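User: For a benchmark we're assembling, each entry needs the component sequences followed by a predicted structure for the full assembly. Here are entry 17's components. Please fill in the structure.
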Amino acid sequence: MANPDRARKLLIRTALATSSTIATLFGAQNLALLDGTTFQQVEAVTTTTITADTTALTIEQAEPSLVIQKTAPNFVILRHATNGTNSANTQPPSQNQNVNTRNIQPPIPSQMAAPAPIIVQQAGQTVYVQQPAPQITESSK
Amino acid sequence: MRLSYIAFRAMGCLATLQLETETDGIERLNEAVRQVETIEACLSRFRPNSDLMQLNAQAGTWVEVSPLLFEVIRAAKHAALVTNGLYHPLLLNIMLGIGYDRTFEELKSSAVVASSTPMLDWHAIELKASRNAVRLPPNGGLDLGGIGKGWSADYLANQLSTDGACLVNLGGDIATRGAPQGYDGWPVIVNDPLDSSLIVSLKLSNLSIATSGVDYRRWKDLNGTPQHHLIDPRTGKPAQTDLQTVTVIHPSGVLAEAFAKAVLIQGSQAGLTWLAQQWDSAGMVVKTNGEVIATPNFTQYISKETSS
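Assistant: Structure for entry 17:
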C-alpha cells in the first residue's frame, strides 16, 4: 500500500464527518417531530369547538329583603352657623338625605393648656425655645 | 435636645421653621432658610428670571429644566390627575387675565382690568424623565402657586428630619416630621377666617396640612367686579362657593393643598363628600354662614386641650 497512514487518517476523518452528520440529521429530525407535535397540539386547541351552555341561569336571592343603600359619610359639625342658617335648615330634605351630620361637643375656644413660648428675636434670627410654638394654618397671607 | 426656631418672610408670606435636635439646630435652620430662597428662585412666577418663567417663555418646545422644577411639575400633574383637574397647573394666563399679574402686596394697591382667557388642557403638559425635559402646550403658562408651598414645606421637612423632629410652615402650609419630646404631635391651630378666633387646635406628626380660602386674596378690577385668586377650572373664573376656607390634612403637602382647593371649588356638600372618598385625607370647612363641618376622621387630630 502506497501510504497506510494516510489511508487510516482518511478513514477516521470520514467516519467522524459521517457520524456528526448522522447526529445532526437525527437531532434535527427529533426537533421537527417536537415542533410538529406542538403545532398539532395548538391546532387541536384552536379547532376545538366550545359549546356555550345556553340554559338560563336562575339566581336565588338568599336575602330578598336585603336592600343596599348608598351610605353617605357622617360629617361632623364642629360649630353651628353663626347666623342661624345651619345646613339642615337651609336645604330641602331631598337634598339633605344623603348627607348625615352628627354633632360633637363644640371645642371650647379656650387658651392652650401650655403657654405659648416667649420668643424674643430679631427678624430672621434663629433662637432656642422651650416649647414648640403653635402654628396657624391659614390661606396664604 | 434643643428646640430651634426661626421666622422670616419668603414666597410672599410669613414662614417659620422649628427643629428639635442634638446637633447645631441654629446653623441647620439658617441653611434651610437659604434653601427656601433657592426654591423660590426656581418656582416663583413673580420673578422674570426664575426657572419656571424661563420655561413658560418657551411654551411649545422641549426644555430641559432643573431636577427640582421637574419634580414639582411632575407632582403638579399628579395632583391634577387625582383631583380630576380641579387643581389645574396651567392657570397662569387665567390669573393674568383676572389681574393677578403681580404679588398680592402690590395688587392690593393697584387697579387692574379683568379679561377672559381660554382654559388649556393640563394633560398637554409633557414630561421626559430621562432628560428632565418639559414641553408645555403652545401659549401655555404654568403657575405652581397652587401646590408650590406644600411641596416646598414637604421638601424642607424631609431635609430637616435627618437631624430631628421638625415643623415647616410656609404661609400656613405646614409639614411635620416626628414630634417634640414629651408631645404626641406638633401643635397646629385653625382660626376663624373672619375674626381670627380659635376654632380648633390640632396635634400632627408626619403629616401635612394646608388651608385654602377666599378670605384674604380678594380685590376688585377696574369695573368693580370682585375677584379672588381661586379659579374654578370648569369656568375659568373665580370659584363660586359657599365656603370661606377649607383645611385638609394629608401625608403629602402637595395633595393637602390640591385637595383643599378642590373641596373649596366644589362647595361644602360635594366637596366634603369627595374628600371623604380620598385616601389618607381628612378635612374641615368653614362656610360663609360660619358653620364648621369636618370629615369623621378629622376629629382624631383635635388636641385634647380644645375638645371636651
